[in-house]
Amino acid sequence: MKQSGNDTISIFRRNGIAVVASNQFIRVFARSQMWIFLPLYLLEIRHVPYIIIGLVVFLMAISSLPLTLVAGGLIDKRGARSVIIVSNIFLGLLLLSLTLLIFENSNLYLIYLVLILSEPLMNIIGAADNVIVSDNSSVAERNSAFSIVRILQNLGFSLGPAIGGFIAGIGYGYIFLLTTVFSFSELFIYAKFLKKQQKKGENEKDDTVNMKPDIFKAFKDRPFFIVAILISLFYLILGQWGTTLTFFWKGFDNMSDFDIGLLYSVNGVVVTLGQLPVNRLLSKMEDITRINLGYIVYLFSFSLLPFFSGFIFLVLDTILITMGENIVSPSISTVISRIAPVNKRGQYFTSFQVLTGMVTPIAPVLGTFFLTVFSADLGLIWYPFTIIGTIFFLSFIPLWKKVNMREHNN
């Protein structure tokens, strides 16, 4: 179902969606700089090898699994607002500690520890945001609602990396200081403006839910399990957008920090301007078909990287990668929200993060492994990814057909 411009504005004005979208802009503006330039800080300032950086990213992702598993039940039982506020308090303190450690060039293991402790809190906040957006939109509105959030995210992403590239020239520590300040700003907005969600009807009956069994019930839900596993394996390829691509641009194309920031900003601009037009163009396409189409665009974009070079080509390739992102990203959240029972969305979203979190951390390890193996010619790293990605796509076609979508209306 197509959403008109007035409908989109109406969805955005809802309290939960407006607060989440606004905070996503703030969060991504600041954390995109940290996400992009942390690996470069470790590589260029602290001289950490590729593979060690990949392992640190892996440990950050793995560390989030136990707490994320419990958090789903907490979100459904205590409410997304309470979980978000408490998580933001602890996250802000950890980011402040990280900033001080980086300014002091402190022991690397202390920096790794703070990074590993921060990651679960970031994931919990993200899962709670998804629940808030789902609770404030109907099934028919859901793609538009998640797209609004993504547009605000990527408006932040269109500004953050370019500014981060400039700040990196002054000192990497100031990037982390900015992230800390903006994290406390998020906390203020959640506490001041996010209204407490009222449970209705069926939801009220489940207030005494036993968290552990319900979480594992989500794992036993066959359509959910199939979707989560297939998307997780896709992320082995999609996850090269980030650490691996940053190092590739630096080592193969000799891009400066500022150039890298501009390339990531191109991604943000294309999402901001292109997400809603893509949604309208593909409004009649099934969400699972969209996920597969976006994956193909991603895979093709990565496969071009060894054959061309220069800033103009990289801008065009980034635009193509971003079109794949525009196609696939809203549909992933929509598929999970449609499969999940209304009163179990927190558990399903966090269970999805747990399942994907068991596979996706391998992506940066795989990327940095190939960067190390093919260090003499970095262009070779995209050949194994193209082969693996093609095998995944062809092998998964029969499994997608087994997924039975269950729609739930608020």
From TrEMBL:
GO cellular component: plasma membrane
Pfam families: MFS_1
Domain of life: Archaea
Record-annotated membrane-spanning stretches: 50-71, 83-103, 109-133, 173-191, 224-242, 262-281, 293-313, 352-374, 380-400
Entry membrane topology: Multi-pass membrane protein
Presence of keyword Lipid metabolism: no
Compartment(s): Cell membrane
Domain annotation Major facilitator superfamily (MFS) profile: ranges: 16-401
SUPFAM superfamilies assigned: MFS general substrate transporter
MF terms in GO: transmembrane transporter activity
Key words, A-Z: Cell membrane, Membrane, Transmembrane, Transmembrane helix, Transport
InterPro entries, alphabetized: MFS (IPR011701), MFS_dom (IPR020846), MFS_trans_sf (IPR036259), MFS_Transporters (IPR050171)
Stated name of the protein: DHA1 family major facilitator superfamily permease
